UniProtKB/TrEMBL annotation:
Residues 208-309 form the Fe2OG dioxygenase domain. Belongs to the iron/ascorbate-dependent oxidoreductase family. One of its GO terms (molecular function) is dioxygenase activity. This is Fe2OG dioxygenase domain-containing protein. It comes from Platanthera zijinensis. Transmembrane segments: none annotated. Keywords: Iron, Metal-binding, Oxidoreductase.
Length: 359
C-alpha cells in the first residue's frame, strides 16, 4: 500500500529486541501490518468440536508400570502415525510437577525484566541459545504472533548450563533429561510399528539430538488477522510438545483443521519430515498451525529430535528394509543439516520442505 515501508517496520520491530510481548506491553490495540495474514490463512475453523475427528490419546502405561501390552500400544502408535501424524500420550513417565515447572520456566523467562531478556536476543542461528521473535521474520510473507527461546541441548557441542537463562536453567536441564528418555521409548515403538527391530531408529541415531523451542504467545488484540504459527511441518525426526491449557494448536486432517485439545498431564507427539522420509511416506509428517487468541499468554515447549546443530555427514534416506519393487524409494538421501538449511532458508511459507527431496 502507498506509504507503507514494510522493511523499515520489520527492522524497527527487530531492533527493539522486545518481541511481540513488547508490543502488547506498550498497549497497542491494533497489530502492525506485517503480522497480517491473508484472510484464507487466518480464518478460524468452521467445524465444531462435536463434529471434528479426535487426535488419538495413547496410554503408554510407563508411570503405572503397566507397559505389558506392548503389542497393543505399538498398533495404536502405528495407526495414529499413519493416519493423523499426531497423537497424545499419557503415563509417559515424566512427572506432572516437571511439566508444570517447564511451562512456568518459560513464563518466567518471558516475563522477566526486558534488559535481562534482551541479552539473549539474536538472529545468529549458529548460537546454541537464542531468543527472538520469528526466526524467518525477514523472509516469511507474514509474521507470527509469538516469541521464542531456542536452546540446543544435544548432541555435543550443545548449550552449556551456564549459557542457559537463569530464569529457566534448572528446569530446562531436568526436563531435557526426561524427554530424552521418552524419546528413546517412542523411537522403539515407532521402529516396531514399521516392522523393524526395536532398536532400529535409535541405532541410526534419530534420538541423538534434541533442541528446545519454548514459545510464548501473548494475548492478541486482533487474532482474526494473524496466526500464532503459520501452517508447517516439522524439520525433525520427531517432536514432543508440551502445551498449556489454553489450546490453539490445530492439525490439518482430510483438508480440515482439527483441534489438538489440551489434556492435563499429556504430551503431544508428532511425526517430523525426516521420519516421513525414512519411512518412505508410511508415517506422516502433517501440517499444523497455532491460532492467535485474545486469551493468553499461551505457552508451549516443542522438543525436536534432530542433529541439525552439528556437521554430521550421515545421510538419511528411505530405510532399505521397507523397500521392494512395489515400494521403491520416494526420496533422495540427505543429511539432517542440509534438510534443515533448506527449511530455514524458505521459512514458514506454507509449502512443504520435504518435497524438494523427492525422487
Amino acid at each position: 500500500m502507498a506509504g507503507y515501508d514494510r522493511v523499515s517496520e520489520l527492522k524497527a520491530f527487530d531492533d527493539a529486541k522486545s518481541g511481540v510481548k513488547g508490543l502488547v506491553d506498550s498497549g497497542i490495540t491494533a497489530i502492525p501490518r506485517f503480522f497480517h495474514h491473508p484472510p484464507a490463512a487466518a480464518v478460524p475453523n468452521e467445524t465444531t468440536l462435536a463434529t471434528q475427528p479426535k487426535i488419538p490419546i495413547i496410554d503408554l502405561g510407563i508411570t503405572s508400570g503397566d507397559f505389558s501390552d506392548r503389542v497393543s500400544v505399538v498398533e495404536l502408535v502405528r495407526q495414529a502415525s499413519e493416519t493423523f501424524g499426531f497423537f497424545q500420550v499419557l503415563n509417559h513417565g515424566i512427572p506432572l510437577f516437571l511439566l508444570d515447572g517447564m511451562l512456568e520456566g518459560v513464563r518466567r523467562f518471558n516475563e522477566q525484566d526486558l534488559a535481562v531478556k534482551m541479552r539473549y536476543y539474536t538472529r545468529d542461528q549458529s548460537r546454541k541459545v537464542l531468543f527472538n521473535s520469528n526466526f524467518d521474520l525477514f523472509k516469511s510473507p507474514a509474521a507470527n504472533w509469538r516469541d521464542t527461546l531456542f536452546c540446543v541441548m544435544a548432541p555435543e557441542p550443545a548449550a552449556k548450563p551456564e549459557d542457559l537463562p537463569d530464569a529457566a536453567r534448572e528446569i530446562i536441564l531436568e526436563y531435557t533429561r526426561e524427554v530424552q528418555k521418552l524419546g528413546g521409548i517412542l523411537f522403539e515403538l515407532l521402529s516396531e510399528a514399521l516392522g523393524l527391530k526395536t532398536e532400529h531408529l535409535n541405532e541410526i541415531e534419530c534420538g541423538r539430538g534434541l533442541s528446545h523451542l519454548s514459545h510464548y504467545y501473548p494475548p492478541c488484540p486482533e487474532p482474526e488477522l494473524t496466526l500464532g504459527t503459520t501452517k508447517h511441518t516439522d524439520p525433525a525426526f520427531l517432536t514432543v510438545l508440551l502445551q498449556d491449557h489454553i489450546g490453539g494448536l490445530q492439525v490439518l486432517h482430510q483438508n480440515q483443521w482439527i483441534d489438538v485439545t489440551p489434556v492435563p498431564g499429556a504430551l503431544v507427539i508428532n511425526i517430523g519430515d525426516l521420519l516421513q522420509l525414512l519411512s518412505n511416506d508410511k508415517l506422516r509428517s502433517v501440517e499444523h498451525r497455532v491460532q492467535a487468541s485474545k486469551i493468553g499468554p499461551r505457552v508451549s515447549v516443542a522438543c525436536f529430535f534432530t542433529t541439525n546443530s552439528i556437521q554430521d555427514e550421515r545421510r538419511y534416506g528411505p530405510i532399505k528394509e521397507l523397500l521392494n519393487q512395489k515400494n521403491p524409494p520416494k526420496y533422495k538421501e540427505v543429511t539432517v543439516r542440509e534438510y534443515t538449511m533448506h527449511f530455514n532458508s524458505k521459512g514458514l511459507d506454507g509449502a512443504s520442505a520435504v518435497d524438494l527431496f523427492r525422487v
